[in-house]
Write a structure and sequence with these properties.
Blueprint (H helix, E strand, L loop, with lengths): L2 H15 L4 H14 L2 H13 L8 H12 L3 H10 L5 H14 L2 H10 L5 H13 L3 H13 L6 H14 L2 H13 L6 H13 L3 H9 L6 H13 L3 H13 L6 H14 L2 H9 L6 H13 L3 H13 L6 H14 L2 H14 L5 H13 L3 H9 L6 H13 L3 H13 L6 H14 L2 H13 L7 H13 L3 H9 L7 H14 L2 H14 L4 H13 L3 H13 L8 E6 L2 E6 L8 H17 L15 H9 L2 H12 L7 E5 L5 H14 L3 E4 L4 E5 L2 E2 L6
Parallel strand pairs: 3-4
Antiparallel strand pairs: 1-2, 1-3, 4-5, 5-6
Helix pairs in contact: 1-2, 1-3, 2-3, 2-4, 4-5, 4-6, 5-6, 6-7, 6-8, 7-8, 8-9, 8-10, 9-10, 10-11, 10-12, 12-13, 12-14, 13-14, 14-15, 14-16, 15-16, 16-17, 16-18, 17-18, 18-19, 18-20, 19-20, 20-21, 20-22, 21-22, 22-23, 22-24, 23-24, 24-25, 24-26, 25-26, 26-27, 26-28, 27-28, 28-29, ...
Length: 695
């Protein structure tokens, strides 16, 4: 028979006999303590109360207090403590331990202050409680107070105090404690060595941390974790991986903390395959490992893999937290997958984390990036608390989706709520002004960044204002703004100017911007293509040939433009004149039928946008089968009926002909089309676009 069964039967027998002796109570309670059986201890406690048993000393009640506190039964511990006729230092320390374990730091301090006398255990318990529950400053306060009252800190005290210094990144205080430890003999206590290594690593003093680490006689997994995480947190993932390999060569088994750090290191180095291999070798994966993999995949452009991992995580019955959910929602946002985003939103509701600030902000961003600002606003409106990230998500979401005046109104409301805008806020605000053509208002917001809010405009802010001025026809002001910048213009600034020159066929400024880009980023195909497009639009075919020859000589490859759609949870990708799809014949048949129908309604393809010196027929073929048109045709094959919007994503700016094409299509078929390109969302409804033909 198992000891737990024998203990239960012994207490059952006690209830059948009636009152018991002190020896019986003591023997049975000690058995409860040894087996950590709080259920039987409570039954024994109830039996004592039932027969009005009052022990002669505090021994039994202190053991009960300790067991209740250790098992988290704080209410039972407090009830027993309050009813004790006599209390000694052990009773008070047991209550301190109970509050420390439960994280009730205010009650912990209150009990300590009520004590008439303290001992070293009292101080150690309080210091560990504060340090372990994020109250590091109070932990160090009591560390000093302990010494002032004449108690000598132990190794246990030093570990807690060093942990507090690590949390505060207070290396000076940590060094003082280190000096005290050395003065009293550092010894071989592995916990102290680990705490010191962790302190220096977290504070960025990696040389000192490594010096201690290399001199440890008996390293454990915590020792290795402290050093590995230190390298990771200080931007040295390669060294982190090297140390992990050394750890494995010594035959040490990594724990979940080690694995999570190594997964992060692999992702930071771009070694995705190694991360996946390491993850697959873990037999028991905890929430942190799953979340690390999901976040790593999402941040390395593997959003679909992140969603697949999330599904597997749920199948393994691992409960995701708010950080996991927000990362998955962000993956849905980058894929513009409304269907999957809504499914994750539903899971967040089931888990009860949908009102979490991190999750809610991610949901606002996701719905905005899927073109559903009404859903985004609903989530934003019902958020119990909002921070600047929440407001930014909604402001930028409105700006990207053509709700420019709503974005600006929300910004004014944000100021009214006394929230301080940040750099991202002004990117959204200036983008809204640019799309709406509000030049004076945009200039006012730009100057307010420094004059009112005490910040310095960033490259992004300059880019927005240059875009606004250039699109409004103020090219001279845009160039003057670049020349007046207090720091050297980067690729973003010159790319913005070049893109405006492409729209306005401004050859002189376009050539100037291109020259700067050729110097700053000589292997980027974008500037060559834009300059070539400017020449082509002006009919300067010799210059077009010259740019293309330059690209060939410099071995610069043009990046592929593509579009993708999601149908029934599957993604379909297309490139221009794509004939690799399994349903190519049906796609082209549907698209040709659609083109013919549009032409009968008055649509004329704009072959002027074909930037090649070829005959008209070749131009017509070239422009008719762009990737977004193929994606649209495939959607109509698979979903010929319905009123829900057709959703298409494209990795570059949509061309003018495709933009006009989508306006005609939405009117002819009577269905809205939402097209997201690299600049913004285009909501096509009844022959009009939300961008007002400015993009």
């Amino acid at each position: 028979m198992k000891p737990t069964h024998r203990l239960r039967e012994a207490i059952d027998a006690l209830y059948s006999r009636g009152a018991a002796t002190s020896e019986s109570y003591t023997r049975l309670l000690l058995q409860c303590v040894r087996s950590n059986d709080v259920v039987q201890a409570k039954r024994l406690h109830t039996h004592m109360d039932l027969y009005l048993y009052q022990p002669n000393d505090t021994f039994l009640q202190n053991r009960l207090l300790h067991l209740y506190g250790k098992s988290g039964n704080l209410a039972d511990a407090r009830d027993l403590f309050d009813k004790m006729p006599r209390r000694d230092i052990f009773s008070w320390n047991a209550m301190l331990a109970a509050y420390s374990k439960s994280g009730k730091v205010e009650d912990l301090r209150a009990v300590f202050d009520q004590m008439s006398a303290h001992d070293a255990v009292s101080y150690n318990t309080v210091i560990a409680g504060f340090s372990g529950n994020g109250c590091s400053s109070q932990a160090l306060e009591f560390f000093v107070r302990m010494q002032e009252e004449g108690f000598e800190p132990t190794d246990y005290t030093h570990v807690s105090a060093l942990h507090a210094c690590s949390q505060l990144l207070d290396i000076m205080r940590g060094k003082q404690i280190h000096g005290r430890i050395v003065a009293t003999s550092l010894g071989e206590n592995i916990f102290v060595w680990n705490a010191l290594t962790n302190l220096y690593a977290k504070c960025g003093a990696l040389d000192q941390a490594r010096w201690l680490f290399d001199r440890m006689i008996h390293k454990n997994v915590v020792s290795w974790n402290s050093m590995i995480s230190g390298y990771l947190q200080n931007g040295q993932p390669e060294t982190c991986i090297e140390l992990f390999c050394e750890m494995q060569s010594l035959g040490l088994k990594p724990d979940q903390v080690t694995v999570s750090n190594i997964l992060c290191a692999y992702f930071q180095c771009g070694h995705i395959d190694e991360a996946c291999k390491t993850f697959s070798e873990i037999k028991e994966k905890d929430k942190i490992c799953w979340t690390t993999m999901i976040v790593g995949c999402a941040q390395n452009g593997k959003e679909e893999d992140a969603l697949l991992l999330f599904r597997k995580m749920l199948l393994e019955n691992v409960r995701p937290d708010s950080f996991t959910i927000s990362s998955v929602v962000s993956s849905c946002a980058r894929l513009a997958s409304l269907c999957k985003g809504q499914a994750v939103h539903g899971k967040a509701v089931i888990l009860g984390v949908d009102n979490d600030l991190l999750v809610s902000s991610a949901l606002v961003d996701m719905y905005s990036k899927c073109g559903e600002t009404a859903y985004a606003w609903f989530v934003f409106k019902w958020m119990s608390t909002r921070n600047v990230v929440s407001w930014n998500s909604m402001i930028v979401g409105y700006a990207q989706n053509g709700n420019d005046l709503e974005a600006l109104a929300l910004y004014e409301e944000m100021l009214h709520e006394n929230l301080k805008p940040d750099n991202i806020t002004f990117v959204g605000v200036l983008s809204a002004c640019m799309h709406a053509g509000l030049v004076e208002r945009g200039e006012g917001y730009f100057h307010s960044i420094s004059k009112i809010h005490g910040m310095s405009p960033t490259f992004d802010h300059y880019s927005c204002l240059i875009n606004l001025l250039g699109r409004a026809g103020y090219m001279d002001k845009a160039v003057d703004l670049i020349n007046s910048m207090t720091f050297e213009p980067n690729c973003l600034i010159w790319s913005t100017l070049l893109s405006i020159c492409r729209i306005r066929c401004d050859v002189n400024n376009g050539e100037m911007a291109a020259r700067h880009l050729f110097e700053l980023d000589p292997h980027n195909a974008g500037p060559y293509i834009m300059l070539s497009n400017i020449y082509a639009a002006c009919g300067r075919w010799k210059d077009v040939a010259s740019v293309r020859s330059l690209m060939k000589n410099n071995k610069i490859k043009k990046f592929a433009a593509y579009s993708w759609i999601e149908i029934d949870s599957h993604f379909h990708k297309f490139i221009a004149e794509d004939r690799t799809h399994s349903e190519t014949e049906q796609i082209y048949e549907e698209l040709n039928r659609l083109i013919k129908k549009l032409q009968e309604s008055g649509f004329t393809p704009d072959t002027n946008l074909v930037l090649h010196d070829v005959v008209e027929e070749e131009k017509l073929v070239s422009i008719s089968y762009h990737s977004e048109k193929l994606a649209l045709a495939f959607w109509l094959i698979k979903k010929p009926h319905g009123r829900t919007p057709i959703r298409i994503m494209k990795n570059i700016r949509v061309c003018g002909d495709c933009h006009a094409f989508m306006k005609f299509v939405c009117k002819i078929i009577g269905r809205p089309i939402i097209l997201r390109d690299m600049n913004r969302f285009h909501h096509f409804v009844e022959g009009r676009c939300s961008c007002k033909d400015i993009w």
